[in-house]
Amino acid sequence: MKKLILGLSMLFVTLGHGQTEFTITADGIYPKAITSEIGAYTTSQLYKKTIDWIEENSETHNLTIDCTAEDISIHISSLKNNAANLEKQYYNATYRVNIRFESGKYTFEPTQIQLKLNSKYDMGWEDFDLNNGSLYFKKGKPLRKYRAYLENIPKVLNELHTELDGHLKVKEN
């Protein structure tokens, strides 16, 4: 009985953790999007506060606005140097995210991750497959060679989401 209770509690902790942070699994990025409840804000207020947050953090996270639909969504990009490493090779990463607004909540959805080897030779940007990570897994577990690589790739997404969430949840006086 203790094993059952322990197993169920571990399952709930894992599922709860997986919904607030992005991870890379054999099926790609999980979850595909995170929806956060903010409170009694209108879509217009959420949109404006998000634009303010992007402007405040444009230098620290290399944030740029790619496209906006007034009060509906914002598409942003973030560039991170040396975002991930594979053995002794370091990769720069570009993250593209769609932020959609509804009354009292917003959805943070990664749409593209591109990686580029940090080298004196320009190798070009390569897409990281958000829908299939099976290349990096065997029998459901990450291959040892790729563990740090897979942990580092979603870190920027988690930082952006956490900071935006904190900014939106702060009440204005």
Q: Quickly give the CATH architecture.
A: 2-Layer Sandwich
List the secondary-structure elements in sequence, H or E: HEEEHEEEEEEEHH
**Helix percentage range:** 25-40%
Estimate the global geometry from the Cα principal axes.
globular
Radius of gyration, in Å, reads 18 Å
Q: What is the beta-strand fraction?
A: 35-45%
Give the termini separation: 51 Å
Structural class determined from secondary elements: alpha+beta
Structure explained in plain terms:
The protein has 173 residues and is an alpha+beta fold. The chain has one domain (2-169): Alpha-D-Glucose-1,6-Bisphosphate, Chain A, domain 4, CATH 3.30.530. Helices cover 30% and strands 38% of the residues. It has four helices and ten strands; from the N terminus they run αβββαβββββββαα. It has helices at 2-18, 43-56, 147-152, 155-169, and strands spanning 23-25, 28-30, 34-37, 63-69, 73-86, 89-102, 105-117, 126-128, 137-138, 141-142. The strands form three sheets. Strands 3, 4, 5, 6, 7 and 8 form a six-stranded antiparallel beta sheet that branches. It has a two-stranded antiparallel ribbon with strand order 1-2. The chain has a two-stranded antiparallel sheet with strand order 9-10. Strand 1 and strand 2 form a beta hairpin. The longest helix has 17 residues, at 2-18. The protein is globular and about 45 Å long. Mean pLDDT is 88; it is low at 8-18. This is DUF4468 domain-containing protein.
